[in-house]
Amino acid sequence: MRRETQLELIRELLAHHAAGTTQLADNVLTLPADVYTSESHWQAERVALFRCRPVVACLSGAVASAGDYVSLTVGGVPVVVVRGGDGVLRGFRNVCRHRASSVVSDCGSGATSLRCPFHAWTYRLDGSLLARPQAGEGFCGTHESELGLAPVPVGESYGVVFVRAEGEEPVDAAELVGDASQDLNDFAVGGYVPFDRWESSWPCNWKLLVDTFLESYHVFSLHRTTVGRYYLSQPMTYRGYGPNLRFQTCQKSILELGEAPEEEWELLSRATVEYLIAPNTILSHSVDHFAVYQFLPTAVDHTDITMTLYTPESVTDRTRPHYERTLELHQRVGASEDFPQAVKIQQSLASGLVTETLVGRHEVALIHFHQALDQLLS
């Protein structure tokens, strides 16, 4: 992040702190329960946001070399992105042409082919069918040239890889990153490499899980025994980039800068800076890593979360314990504090007796998120 941007954000935060204020939206937002519980609303999102719109698949470092691949399920469609031996990044439906089993799981590196575990049908990295072991005459009348993996569009820009599950229109990754591009370029996001990933599933609507990231109002209360000891709940500021946004949660130590000359100011060691890439991905930078959270809904009330920890360079024996503790902290805060709250809210809304939730003017990034989703759906 550019120094002038860091200085601007610090000035803004210190001014709010001195005045006892925070950034505010124009109005309070009322969210009908149906936004989280309606099957028809979820089906509209499934098509418009997760099938016909590209979503983040990974950072470029996860598919930097030939044979690197990442799989995920988007809008109910299993997909995989893979770097070919020719250096080209390709996307496919992660569906074997034999019996529709998933060809690969999770992510991997250095693969020379993609092999379905069910009957060992094997595909080249360009998606073409390589082998059908022990098939004999069982598939007479079919042609290997017509049984490659079905392609899906992919795009890559500023270190972020996008994939679209449905449709043939090319993916303009630079446009999808939008005005966040300058920051991501300054961070050199494309050079970050994956360390480890954490997968979990939660019985609630995907937006409730994203909501927990988009306001720091709860930090002093919900996280009082963990990160709440170090981070401010307010002031909080954000910037909207079309459907995307940037926001930061600052450590209490940042207030010490009010007594220091500006040439000594530095934001990134005293704040977690996060980017929402619409509709469902959070890129969270904290000191020495990016945590990439992907919220992948499978039903109106069920969401899979994949969190991948990316580091500026490959982890060594010396740095491994540090990053293992970092991953454990993400898991502890998410699984023990944030995400269970989303589940409880889902249960309340699903009762039929709670008709709406209220978003305060100071939860301004959260308001932006929901208003942007409305625009994308319309």
Describe this structure in words.
- It is a single chain.
- With 378 residues, the chain is α+β, with helices and mostly antiparallel strands.
- It has helices spanning 3-19, 34-37, 39-48, 173-177, 181-187, 206-211, 219-222, 320-350, 364-377, and strands spanning 29-32, 55-59, 69-74, 77-83, 89-93, 107-108, 114-115, 122-123, 129-131, 151-152, 154-157, 160-163, 193-202, 238-241, 244-250, 271-277, 281-286, 289-299, 302-311, 356-359.
- It folds into two domains: 1-53 and 178-378, Naphthalene 1,2-dioxygenase Alpha Subunit, Chain A, domain 1 (Alpha-Beta Complex), CATH 3.90.380; 55-170, Rieske Iron-sulfur Protein, CATH 2.102.10.
- The strands form five sheets. It has a seven-stranded antiparallel sheet with strand order 13-19-18-17-16-15-14.
Features:
378 residues, alpha+beta, Naphthalene 1,2-dioxygenase Alpha Subunit, Chain A, domain 1, Rieske Iron-sulfur Protein, 2 domains, 7-stranded antiparallel beta sheet
Quick overview:
The chain is of the alpha+beta class and 378 residues long. It has helices at 3-19, 34-37, 39-48, 173-177, 181-187, 206-211, 219-222, 320-350, 364-377, and strands at 29-32, 55-59, 69-74, 77-83, 89-93, 107-108, 114-115, 122-123, 129-131, 151-152, 154-157, 160-163, 193-202, 238-241, 244-250, 271-277, 281-286, 289-299, 302-311, 356-359. It folds into 2 domains: 1-53 and 178-378, Naphthalene 1,2-dioxygenase Alpha Subunit, Chain A, domain 1, CATH 3.90.380; 55-170, Rieske [2Fe-2S] iron-sulphur domain (Rieske Iron-sulfur Protein, 3-layer Sandwich), CATH 2.102.10.
